[in-house]
Structures are given as structure tokens and as C-alpha cells.
Amino acid sequence: MVQFIEIYDNEEEDEAYVANSNYVSDILDHEPSMSSSIMPSSALALPSYRSDCNAPNSTTSTTLSSTVEKSRERLMSEIEDTIEHMFTSIAIGELCRLPMTSKPLPQRKRKRPSAADATPSTDVTTTHDSSTTGTANAASSNDNTRYLSLSSSCSKTRALARYLSVLQMIYEAIAYKIMLTKRDMYYRNVELFGKQSVVDIIVDDISRHYNVPRSSLNVSAASKGLVFGPIIIKLKNNKVLNCSSSNSITDTDDEQGILIPPIHQVVQVQCKAKCMIVVEKEATFRYLVSIGFCQSLPESCVLVTGKGYPDLSTRQFVKYFSTHFTLKPILALMDGDPHGLDIYATYKWGTRVMAFDVFNLAVNSIELIGLTCQDRQEFNISPQCLIPLSERDRAKCLAMVRTYNQDETPGQSQLIERGWQDVNTELASQSHQSYIKEINQLLASDHKCEIQALNHNGPYNLTNYLIKKLAKYI
Question: Does the pLDDT of residue 172 top 50, yes or no?
Fold first, then answer.
């Protein structure tokens, strides 16, 4: 049986499952078919968004996959058509099958088919839609179509019930103009879904199938990212978030940042800062806030953290900043380890899970300022602060630069998996070459280093480090 990856808001957990796919359970219990998308070609047409002015090459951003905002009435109509298709099949006595476009599956070992597997099944059949050509095929050549059906198989019928249940909740949320969280959806029928990750997968599949952002489905995840600095966020409910001070309406009283709201709730952002610094860890973020780092700069900055691998709201907020404040640099402050580099890549090039919407999420203009292997010598980091790479660390580094044939450039397959189509342009960019170089230097040194190591020789060494780094940008 083909295995499906579990989808988490925490990309680190997703990375762990991909790295060891033999332990991923088939939690949806239905059959995949590699084919072109079955949804109408009009739904696959890319919108004419304004290209990211900070991107090194405008042709790159215009060839990225993206979702399309649809009107409430149109989306409800498409969901109604889906449900009608199901019940029409049942009424005329046909095998009830629901094609559901889903994200491409990552490469993994597949069990060699046995003689029994080669026998045609009466429960689920798969077909290839050869009529979809041109732009549609170019945008979805790696799409999968999952066929959900009523059958004698309990697991396949349960998978169909799961999708229909989620569609019902989404339809009601859109109709009544209310917001749902994925957690709330799970708790509405714990027995049916079994685990939270099942709901996460289905919501992403439905988002991809109708080619809309998750916010159009009126579904959100709990925010975890924080923002601090001279920036004011105005929301649709008329609330105003002053991110440079404690604010009672945000339920924060420690003056350690404001929770980043879902981007669809944002009406306007006002920013007086000269740049944004995206910080990997919450501990580093809170340290910089507590010592008044933003206020100490002659030209202040905005601090953002996704607390490790960022959630969707944090990535959308950084993307919003990049497109509305094109002259303000966005800088990444990460640990000098494999996860720090991968989190930087998540912001810059996106993820496999959301590859179908990379245009609206990836921030190609973000630049890595540290902590690099070269910084260890330039800023006199003590050798006792260096940590030997574990086997898992080395495996992660190798996976980030793995090539599958002699003609492939390191990082090429990884960009394709993240949703990039103009790969050659990105591979030739200085930022990607520096990224690959940093991974190789990390492997060669056989040691990693956390950002807190800068404070080993004094409590304000991290501040001095950042001031020197920022001199190039502000």
C-alpha cells in the first residue's frame, strides 16, 4: 500500500517523517494516481499578481505556482458541484468516486507490487485525464489525484466520509462567514478523524483541489509567530496592534512581542523601521526585545520569529512585508546548524507541503546574515561553544544538497520539490550559491554553533554582532 506523509504546521516534524518514510502510516486509506489535474483548467490559471520587487529576477516570481482568490459565491458553487457529483453517482447506481487533487508525494521507496496487487480492483479505479494540456499541465505536472469511493472496504469508505465531513464544515464556515481552526474541525469528530494530522492533510488537499489559499476556506491554524518593533497592524475588526508596546487586546502583558495575526485579517500595516530581522528561535527574539535592541539602533528594525519552523501566518506576514515595503531589507538570523539553514530556506524558497502556493509564501529577497561558519573566526567564538554534528545533522545536510544524477546541480531537486519552476535562474543566484557553500562548510567543519555562543564572552556580544552585520543594509 502506498504511504502518505503526515502534514504538520511544524515543518520540522514533517522533515523528520520525510527523512524516514518507512515509518509513515497511510492515514488516509485511499488510492493515489499520478495524473494531470482533473479540475477545470480555468482554476489552474495563475493570477496576475504584482511581482516581488525585491526578487533578483522578475521572471522567477511569475513562473511560481500560486493559488487564486475566489469569490465566496464561486467557491460555494464549486463545493456544491462536488457534492452533487457524489450523490448523482449514488442515485444512478454507479461506482461513487470523488477525484480530489492533492499535493505531489515526495519520493520514497514503494513496495514492489505483488501478483495480487496487479489484479484490477473493483473498489477504486484510476484514470488519466489526457485532455488537460498547455498551462494546466505545466502548472500541475506533478499533481496527484486521490480517488475516494464508497466500497466494501471500510477504510476507503472512511476516507470518503472524512473528506465529505471537512467539506461540509468548510461550506458552512463560508456560508455563515465564520472562521474555523483545524483543531476545532478535528474535535468535532475525533472518532472519525483519529488524529489531527488527518484534518491537516485534507484541508491542504481541498485548498489545492480548488486552487485557493487556505484563508478562502475560512480555515486557520493557531498563530505562534511573534513580531516586535515600530510597526502598527490594523485589523478588519477595527483593532489596532501596536507592536512596539504591550497591548491588552493581544493578551500579552510581558512586552515580549505581539502574536502575528492571520494575514486575511490585516487591513493595513504601518512601519517606521528600516529593516526586518527574522529570528529563528524565540529565546533569541525575547533576549533582543528585553535589552531594547530595536530602540538602541539609530534606525530601528522589526523583529519577527516563527519559533523555529514558521507557521503559515508568520510566512504570510513576512511575505506581506516584502511586497508592501520593497525597499526595506529582510534579514535572517539563524543558528549555524542544519536546521537553521533549512528554516532560512523555508522562508526564502518555501516548503514541499505548500509548494502549490509558493508564489504567495516564498520571500526570495530575504538574506542570511548569520550565524555562518565564517563568523566563528571573525567574531572569536570559543571552540568550546562548538557542538559536533550528529549523524542526523550530517544526514540532513546531505539531503539539502543531494543530487540524483551527474548533470544535476546541488539543491536543484530540492528547489523543484519546493515548487520552483525557473530553477536554473535561482541556482545561478548568489544567494543560493552561498546557501550551498554554507552547507558544505558546515559539513567540512563537522561542528555546529548556536547563536547564543556569541554571548559567551560578554552579555552584549550578540548586539555588537548584529550592529556590524546591519551596517551593510541600514
Answer: yes
Q: Render pLDDT for 33-67 as a digit per residue (tens, 0 to 9).
A: 433 333 333 332 323 333 333 333 333 334 567 78
304 pLDDT tier (thresholds 50, 70, 90) = very high
Residue 88: pLDDT band with limits 50, 70, 90: confident
Which part of the chain is CATH 1.10.10.10? Answer: 71-100+145-220
Tell me which residue of 140, 162, 263, 265 sits closest to 208, measured CA to CA.
140
Task: State the DSSP code for 53.
Answer: T
CA distance 124 to 156: 9
The amino acid present at 394, given as its one-letter code, is: R
Q: Name the helix (H) or strand (E) containing 304.
A: strand 301-305
pLDDT value of position 150: 67
Q: Quick one: pLDDT at residue 342?
A: 95
Is 17 a known active-site residue? Answer: no
Indicate which residue of 171, 186, 187, 320 is catalytic: 187
What kind of fold does domain 272-471 have according to CATH? Dna Topoisomerase Vi A Subunit; Chain: A, domain 2 (3.40.1360)
CATH architecture of 71-100+145-220: Orthogonal Bundle (1.10)
CA distance to 307, 316, 359, 396, per residue, from 342 (Å)? 14, 18, 18, 9
Per-residue confidence (pLDDT) for residue 249, from 0 to 100: 44
Answer positive or negative: Cα dihedral of 216, 249, 188, 105: positive
Q: Where in the chain is the domain with CATH 3.40.1360.10?
A: 272-471
Q: What pLDDT score was predicted for residue 18?
A: 37
**CA-to-CA separations, 472 to 228, 275, 330, 342, in angstroms, rounded:** 22, 12, 12, 24
